[in-house]
């Protein structure tokens, strides 16, 4: 999981002995530092050979054995050599709780740091040069204004909405579907191709906050020929993260098997707009592709 990791007391940590992030609990959380999520580099001490913006690039670095011992044009952050300490200040895309970090030193051989320190306050700070990526995995925590009068997207990952249950084990636990307006078809949820009849995959979304709903938007942007024929949406109220563990949770039909257009924004008005919901269940018929919800 990258180079040697360290942190300041009183924040104990456990190093994860895994080469693949998907094999760890961190795959359950979002990278709050990602540029796609709104993260940005606010300040950096030195980036002579590699731009610090690479640290928060959502795309993973590509391994290149020919570049291991070369300086410059690195797909990562690299300072001048012989610098005792280099640092970068990263502003997370939103307020949040952090559960783990991935410090990636791919393509840095003799130039990789021996240790790294990650400190958190109103901004995140990482000291130690020459890293390909820094991932800060956690959960967004909404910072609601006291007098909130305008509509907000309660299903936005940047406000704290999360996918808590899914049928598509390959792709559905993907926060992209809770991000507004993906740039390509890769920024959405595409279910596996299957000859199984009536697959009907679904995701259960815990909203950023319980609330009433005025409208629901399903985007199939960038999907031509592989958008679902129809969708259905149900809602419930539960104090549990996953309503499957709440025997009192009562799912209510909000949108009944409505057809959707491909490569389009599909909007549905909610007639029961006085009911408070904490979770939504989005089902695609048959399982195909959604850009965002």
UniProtKB/TrEMBL annotation:
<dbReference type="GO" id="GO:0000256">
    <property type="term" value="P:allantoin catabolic process"/>
</dbReference>
<comment type="similarity">
    <text>Belongs to the allantoicase family.</text>
</comment>
<feature type="region of interest" description="Disordered">
    <location>
        <begin position="52"/>
        <end position="77"/>
    </location>
</feature>
<feature type="domain" description="Allantoicase">
    <location>
        <begin position="160"/>
        <end position="286"/>
    </location>
</feature>
<dbReference type="InterPro" id="IPR015908">
    <property type="entry name" value="Allantoicase_dom"/>
</dbReference>
<dbReference type="InterPro" id="IPR005164">
    <property type="entry name" value="Allantoicase"/>
</dbReference>
<dbReference type="GO" id="GO:0004037">
    <property type="term" value="F:allantoicase activity"/>
</dbReference>
<feature type="compositionally biased region" description="Acidic residues">
    <location>
        <begin position="55"/>
        <end position="70"/>
    </location>
</feature>
<feature type="domain" description="Allantoicase">
    <location>
        <begin position="38"/>
        <end position="128"/>
    </location>
</feature>
<dbReference type="InterPro" id="IPR008979">
    <property type="entry name" value="Galactose-bd-like_sf"/>
</dbReference>
<protein>
    <recommendedName>
        <fullName>Allantoicase domain-containing protein</fullName>
    </recommendedName>
</protein>
<dbReference type="Pfam" id="PF03561">
    <property type="entry name" value="Allantoicase"/>
</dbReference>
């Amino acid at each position: 999981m990258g180079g040697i990791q360290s942190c300041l007391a009183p924040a104990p940590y456990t190093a994860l002995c895994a080469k693949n992030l998907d094999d760890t609990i961190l795959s359950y959380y979002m990278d709050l530092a990602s540029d796609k999520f709104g993260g940005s580099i606010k300040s950096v001490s030195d980036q002579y050979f590699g731009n610090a913006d690479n640290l928060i690039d959502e795309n993973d670095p590509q391994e290149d054995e020919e570049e291991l011992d070369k300086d410059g044009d690195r797909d990562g952050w690299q300072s001048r050599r012989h610098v005792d300490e280099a640092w970068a200040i990263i502003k997370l895309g939103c307020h949040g709780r952090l559960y783990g970090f991935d410090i990636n030193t791919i393509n840095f051989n003799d130039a990789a740091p021996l240790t790294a320190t990650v400190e958190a306050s109103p901004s995140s700070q990482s000291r130690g040069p020459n890293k390909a990526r820094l991932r800060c995995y956690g959960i967004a925590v909404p910072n609601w204004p006291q007098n909130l009068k305008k509509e907000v997207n309660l299903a936005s990952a940047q406000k704290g909405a999360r996918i808590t249950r899914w049928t598509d084990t390959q792709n559905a636990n993907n926060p992209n579907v809770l991000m507004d307006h993906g740039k390509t078809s890769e920024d959405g949820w595409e279910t596996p191709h299957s000859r199984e009849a009536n697959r009907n995959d679904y995701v259960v979304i815990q909203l950023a906050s319980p609330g009433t709903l005025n409208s629901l938007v399903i985007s199939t942007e960038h999907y031509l020929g592989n958008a679902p024929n129809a969708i259905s949406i149900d809602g419930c109220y539960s104090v549990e993260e996953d309503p499957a563990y709440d025997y009192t949770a009562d799912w209510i039909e909000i949108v009944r098997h409505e057809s959707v257009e491909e490569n389009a924004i599909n909007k549905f008005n909610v007639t029961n707009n006085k009911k408070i919901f904490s979770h939504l269940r989005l089902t695609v018929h048959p399982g195909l592709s959604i850009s965002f919800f």
